[in-house]
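REVIEWER CHECKLIST
Item 1: Sequence provided? yes
Item 2: Single chain? yes
Item 3: Sequence as submitted:
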Amino acid sequence: MDLTLSFPTSPRERMCGIVHIPRMIDKARAFRKNAMGEYIYPCPLDKMILNFLRTDPVEFCQYVVDHDRGQIEGWVAEKSMARSESEKEFLNRQILERAPDSEDRWKYFYEIRDKIDPSRTDITTWVDLIDLEEGRLQPKAS
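Item 4: Structure as written out by the authors:
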């Protein structure tokens, strides 16, 4: 994956019932190829997943580079086996609903959002902003 040429998968996409993992796979593979562009691995959302899976950025990156999607899915299932569905859904909500947590972060968030589409005042989470920035959200209806 070369993130200087294309976007990673949406953070909304799931693997083993957990959001953001397919995006992390794309980013880890790009990281290994030194093709990150402006992306960050591991970012704060990645770190939430890594903690949940009880792994680290190096182990995750190594595994996803060396294995195919089916093998990765099996590994993620094994890593998350001790977690209940309610724990997975709680993590998913934490990621999907995560918003800036300080005045400075909100200022930064609004600057990015307003450069893309100042009419999108409905965009209030990092995941929404990512999908807006990467062209996955439809324009706001007038």
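Item 5: Key structural point noted by reviewer: The mean pLDDT is 95.
Item 6: Recommendation: ____
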